[in-house]
Amino acid sequence: MLVAAGNLINGSTITRNDASELDELEFFHIELQVHDVLYAEGAPCETLLNVDENAANFAEYLRQYGPATAEATPCAPLLRYGYRRGEIKSCFRSAISPWYDRRQTVDIIRDKLDAHGIALLRESEHLS
Question: Is 127 helix (H, G, I), strand (E, B) or coil?
């Protein structure tokens, strides 16, 4: 299973870095003949599934590689809870889970990461 990275941000072990002090930020997307997962600095990451037509270099990409010949299919199920409303529903499912557990797989993954982040924070406070 793949989990959208934005759904894993918990503010402790996984954070969003502010890049406002940078003049330029580059993202690299690797496209293979078949969509797959590869390791980037030890972390499993998915390859490019679809090319964003709003990307700054889309015209260059289209000239070089031409239009897609087949519909790309994900290499594994993608777990996500969507936009803000889905995130709120996910947090609600986690909050009531001690009494009525209706969490989905992505909720459980996020809860485990949160618990790990809290444990690391407590350990670092204990050591200092």
Answer: helix
